[in-house]
Write a structure and sequence with these properties.
heterodimer; A: alpha+beta; Alpha-Beta Plaits; 2 domains; four-stranded mixed beta sheet; B: Formate dehydrogenase/DMSO reductase fold; 14 helices; about 75% helix
């Protein structure tokens, strides 16, 4: 899978470079002020530049994320990571909450960890925002229940989605104990504010969720949310590597995971 | 054999026309849903399965209940069921077809449904449910086709049919067991994750299915020359009585475990059902109606006088059927999602298009059943037209 994608990226880079080469000729044929044409070409420029800047893919044996909630709370009302994620991945914004799609979002702490008791915890802590996303479980129940193999766990731990194979039965949503999956109840494309052409949009009737930015990892970049966080509250790395930052943090600090009793082994850890 | 369904009197054709109109309305509503996407339903990110999947679940039970006539007739040679066995098998065929249609209308990408077979996934219960339901349909079509064909020729059914009939008995149990496993295997949904879910499904199925069969026999007696006879209907009444008793017993066991243990994530679902949760009382009147109807049906069934009288037996069947439909066809599925895994409540109620599509599927099932029963009646030469 990884190799296929790398090959594809090379091909995409080549294609983009070719269209770049064709730009002067094409530009001469089109009126200077033609807004119809200019923005896509600019986007292609960017795509070509990105393709040229492709670094070595980041690989791991077990990707994991640590979320430092104290640092996160220091920046109250900050949504940089959410915006970065949803912008990068063409996540639509619907007015009606029942149609909602979210990959990364904030929830009250008492809901995120609702199996815990918080009777004497101060309200500001109980209601404090907690970032939620797909936990990329080691034993993902969503993968177990999917009737078509449209969602699967890669060897590096990322739980992936194939939006072309998904039949939209939503069994994975019923199976996920974390509410991490969203369904395209309607055509999402008219509701995407600024469509990124280097990431696919989805069609109605399929399920989607966070993929730990596997497309960025393949280009040697960190996940968009991690890059966007000014507080450095999101730490991403390989848990199987004893020298990785995530591993060092988890072995030196107390962390919790959501619903560990279910045996799904989430790979998102919270420092509280 | 199918040509028998194309000959009939005026009232037969009027009934067929009514059903066709219902199917037509359902089809139009579905085309609207197909164009717009499932956002036209009451479903949401939190309550992602609803009325369609609930009807599917309820009808799997109706389909499985055919075993309640097949088993006594073929395994114990209980001759009294000779006349109604074919009715039970045809009811199963119609119910399975409705199940499949309800799954189809619930799919986000219905045209990709073949992916279930192109990429078979034995670790998914949905794969096995597809296999079980498909197999059950083939079994029942085969059995009823050859049994009725032999009856028309006045000969005994072919010998090779017998093992297939025997196979259909555990297969009937399997379809509802696997359907229960769809739910009870999910650690994410404490309301469904109960070892008693499959037995409870079977008990409610073996009550609701034969109750429907009794009511169908009454309808056939009124509108055709077919009379199931008193004895088989009484026997079905007895079967229903025991099955319903077990079902109520199982429900009380669920309630006891949740209430006495007091574990919030189990208890909250029952609060949603019977008292309301965080102001959402959608299911409360329905669930109490279901409980009262269950008691009424049991009182009428336990008392030999009311059970033996066909009018009161019919009343018991209606009360029982409605009670179990509310329990399984309305409440059981959505309650698994309320509250959601984060402990919050999102309300659900089917929208008008969702409702029309569902009525359309039921209309399709009634149409299939009408045509099949017409064939059976004609072959037995007991219908007026």
């Amino acid at each position: 899978m990884g190799i296929d994608r790398r090959k594809f990226m090379k091909f995409a880079g080549l294609t983009a470079a070719l269209s770049l080469a064709g730009k002067p000729t094409f530009g001469a044929l089109v009126e200077e002020d033609s807004l119809e044409v200019t923005p896509p070409l600019e986007k292609l420029d960017k795509l070509a530049a990105d393709a040229r800047a492709v670094g070595q893919p980041l690989t791991a044996r077990r990707w994991a994320m640590v979320i430092d909630l104290k640092k996160c709370h220091d920046a109250e009302n900050c949504k940089d990571c959410i915006h970065a994620c949803h912008h990068t991945h063409n996540v639509p914004e619907f007015e009606n909450p029942k149609d909602e799609i979210k990959w990364l979002w904030k929830e009250k702490f008492e809901h995120a960890f609702h199996e815990q008791e918080f009777e004497f915890v101060q309200e500001e802590h109980r209601h404090s925002d907690t970032l939620l996303l797909c936990n990329h479980c080691d034993k993902p129940p969503c993968v177990k229940v999917c009737p078509t193999g449209a969602t699967w766990r890669r060897d590096d731990g990322i739980v992936m989605m194939d939006w072309h194979r998904c039949i939209g039965c939503r069994y994975c949503i019923a199976g996920c104990p974390y509410g991490s999956r969203s369904f395209n109840w309607r055509d999402p494309r008219p509701f995407i504010k600024d469509t990124q052409i280097d990431f696919p949009t989805r069609m109605r009737g399929v399920v989607e969720k966070c993929t730990f930015c596997e497309e960025l990892l393949a280009r040697g970049q960190l996940p968009a949310c991690v890059e966007a966080c000014k507080e450095k509250a999101l730490i991403f790395g390989d848990l199987e590597d004893p020298n990785s930052e995530v591993r060092k943090i988890l072995s030196s600090q107390f962390s919790i995971r959501r619903k560990p009793a279910l045996g799904t082994h989430p790979e998102v850890y919270y420092l509280i | 054999m199918l040509e028998k369904a194309l000959v009939g009197n005026k009232s037969y054709w009027s009934w067929v026309a009514v059903l066709l109109a219902i199917v037509g309305a359902g089809t139009l509503a579905y085309l609207y849903q197909y164009r717009e996407g499932l956002h036209i339903t009451g479903l949401s990110r939190d309550v992602s399965w609803g009325f369609y999947i609930a009807q599917f679940t309820f009808l799997v039970g109706v389909a499985a209940s055919a075993v309640m006539v097949v088993l006594p007739y073929y395994l114990h040679n209980y001759k009294q069921f000779a006349k109604i066995t074919i009715l039970g098998e045809f009811l199963a065929v119609s119910a399975v077809m409705m199940c499949m249609t309800f799954i189809f209308v619930d799919m986000g990408q219905p045209l990709r449904i073949v992916n279930v077979f192109l990429h078979p996934t034995p670790h998914s219960l949905m794969f096995w449910d597809t296999v079980a339901l498909g197999g059950y349909l083939v079994l029942n079509v085969t059995i009823s086709h050859f049994a009725l064909g032999a009856e028309r020729m006045g000969v005994a059914p072919p010998k090779w049919l017998k093992p297939i009939i025997i196979l259909s008995i555990p297969w009937a149990v399997s379809i509802h067991t696997v359907t229960a496993f769809l739910y009870s295997g999910l650690a994410a949904r404490p309301f469904w994750m109960s070892a008693i879910l499959a037995p409870r499904f079977l008990a409610s199925a073996f009550a609701a299915g034969p109750a429907l069969l009794i009511l169908l026999c009454f309808v056939l007696r009124k509108f055709t020359k077919f009379d199931a006879g008193r004895e088989p209907i009484q026997k079905l009444g007895l079967i229903i009585m025991y099955a319903m008793s077990l079902n109520v017993f199982f429900i009380l066991m669920e309630v006891f475990t949740a209430v006495y243990s007091g574990i919030p994530e189990h208890l909250m679902h029952f609060q949603y059902l019977y008292t309301g949760l965080e102001g959402d009382t959608t299911m409360v009147p329905w669930m109490w109606a279901s409980s009262i109807l269950a008691i009424i049906s049991l009182v009428l069934l336990y008392n030999p006088k009311t059970r033996n009288r066909e009018f009161t037996l019919g009343l018991a069947c209606v009360a029982l059927f409605v009670s179990l439909w509310i329990d399984k066809g309305l409440a059981m599925v959505v309650t698994g999602f309320i509250p959601n895994p984060l402990g919050t409540v999102t309300s659900y109620w089917p929208t008008l298009p969702e409702f029309v599509i569902s009525i359309g599927v039921y209309g399709m099932g009634a149409l299939v059943l009408t045509l099949l029963y017409k064939i059976a009646m004609t072959i037995r030469g007991k219908v007026s037209a």
